[in-house]
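[[Local backbone shapes]]
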Amino acid sequence: MDTLQKEKNIALIKDVLRNYLLEKGFRNTPERYTILEEIYGMDHHFNVDDLYLLMMQKKYHVSKATIYNTIEIFLDAGLIRKHQFGEKTLTSSSYEKSYFDKQHDHLVIYKKDSDKEIEEIIEFCDPRIQGIKEAIEGAFGVKIDSHSLYFYGTKND
């Protein structure tokens, strides 16, 4: 993605946040926009500890509590998505930006002989899953708005 498109995307998600904060009656703080920009600058999943360390390395003065509170706002605003990959970390939830992402699923690969330490997370989209979703909708008479699918494993030798 080129620089101009990235700038347009950042401006758009900032507008989404601004409108959300206004609608909910929340304070419009510069820290929230800084955290949002950092998240949308990442190309991988993250947890609160990762984000906090990144913010500290960049000399931002933001507490971990502020990050936790802001994460909850971003989740409710649809700007990020929460995952439980089953990893053994201090903060067990992982997150990813979600505003521009299409529906996808995850293959979580653990390191061999580890206690659920993640080696890699592969995002994939398989059109057969859409067919399964449509079959479930028909069988149960529902409209599925979203889904989560995780596969867990280790690499073969």
Observations:
- The first strand starts at residue 80 and ends at 83.
